[in-house]
Amino acid sequence: MLRLLEEKIATPLGPLWVICDEQFRLRAVEWEQYHDRMEQLLDIHYRHEGYERISSTNPGGLSDKIADYFAGNLAVIDNLETATGGTPFQREVWQALRTIPCGQVMHYGQLAERLGRPGAARAVGSREWHEPNQYCRSVSSRHRA
Description:
Blueprint: E1 2-9, E2 16-20, E3 26-31, H1 35-46, E4 51-55, H2 62-70, H3 88-97, E5 105-107, H4 108-114, H5 121-128, E6 138-140
Parallel strand pairs: 1-4, 5-6
Antiparallel strand pairs: 1-2, 2-3
Helix pairs in contact: 4-5
């Protein structure tokens, strides 16, 4: 059974859940107001192997690193080790999301091109929102303002 260590931390933007495994690989990051969505995504990705959530304080130093991000060290998130479920394509999209510089906006078609799949903008867009670790990156429809 997968044991997930979790902590809800205070940030300038509101409470944020930080969840990692026992190897301190980030499994989920989600704002408190989307807690229900986070639980649904954890179930989707981990229910087959089974998991339990365990309250923890600063698991693996992750809470401190995320606090450091909010203090202005934007690069700190680039080195966070993650572990995600999902299909190979989903993991490929999520890895590509991590290459987008903080503060830069990209549309799904650009991300699909970056993946070498120029016709996959719709698939990229539908996959991004199912990632429990999707944080601090902005990808949108070409037509969204």
